[in-house]
Amino acid sequence: MLPIHCAVIKIGSNVVTSDSGQPDEARMKHLVGQVAILLRKGIQVLLVTSGAVAFGRQEIALQEKMNPVLKKQIWASAGQIALIQKYKNLFATNGYQVAQILVTKEDFRDRKHYLNMRNCILGLLSQGIIPILNENDTVAITELMFTDNDELASLTAAMVNADTLILMTNVDGVYDGPPSDPDSKLIPVIGHKMPELGSMISPTKSSFGRGGMLTKLTMARKSADLGIQVIIGNGKKDYILQGILEENVPFTYFEPKPSKQSQKKWLAHGEQYYKGEVVINDGAKSALASEKIISLLPIGIGSISGEFSKGDIIRIIGENGEKIGLGKSEYNSATALQVLGKKNQKPFIHYDYLYLFQHD
């Protein structure tokens, strides 16, 4: 039996839509029944679900020549109502209540927003209410959109300290070649030291979503690095969640590393949110790479770029341009420039809010 206490389950577009692009309500009903089995076993579940655009497309006919972004916003905003209503009714039949949470990347960038959202979700879970998350497509602009709901699910799992992330797609997992090729084999376990698999993965995206298997692989590895066990499985198969729990169906399992502190999980996903950048010298780089618990001090910083406030995420790079890590600044940019390179100053980034790409 796979040990699961708190799981974020992402249901992809190709799982909840038919080949024609219409909502697959029978599949949704079956998956809700599967989630109910986990809930009755005492497992906390958060749902990240696609499908709003499919429901909107079913309800509203729009002109072909309409701007595609506007078209998607209209379908998503109208379809989200139908999608959440469907889930509400299906879960009610199983004796559970749901809550809707619509988010954008901006909600994960600011630490205060992030903690407020986290507290709300944990409050819902404490009351036995299932949080259902989706991207707020009506306000998200291109540069602030999630890659797809795999990224949102990965961020959510890190935020609530979930021990498990389950990505439901329309294939059994990660293959060593195209899944359509009969010679391709499913990779059942991906460990820490597996070679880079990107070259094997087809870049083809979902018919109805933005992402593909390459995105899933990237997000799965990032989550596993943070201490979250990740499963990629086939949501089109009957009894899939029960089968994953009992380990009697095919899926790909990503071995987790030891769990990171919650604030470092927040930082791990912050590479697209940083407000400033610091270049550190080789001495500071070596110190950060050592086994010692050490903060980044102003004396180790050679230069600073960008305007930022205290509490913003900062990217750390080496003198040769290599990306070293991310951290939460203890200074605003003006004050940081004043103490740059000086001794006996408080840390620029405290160790508790420092995430290193290779060494942490």
Characterise the protein shown here.
35% of the residues lie in helices and 18% in strands. The chain is an alpha/beta fold and 360 residues long. The protein has two domains: 6-263, Acetylglutamate kinase-like (Carbamate kinase), CATH 3.40.1160.10; 274-356, PUA domain (Archaeosine Trna-guanine Transglycosylase, Chain: A, domain 4, Roll). The strands form two sheets. The protein has an eight-stranded mixed sheet with strand order 3-4-2-1-5-7-8-6, with helices on both faces. It has a five-stranded mixed sheet with strand order 10-9-11-12-13, with helices on both faces. A hairpin with a 5-residue loop joins strand 11 and strand 12 (323-328). Helix 7 (149-159) runs parallel beside helix 8. Residues 202-211 have low confidence and may be disordered. It catalyses: L-glutamate + ATP = L-glutamyl 5-phosphate + ADP. It is found in: Cytoplasm. It is an enzyme of class 2 (transferase).
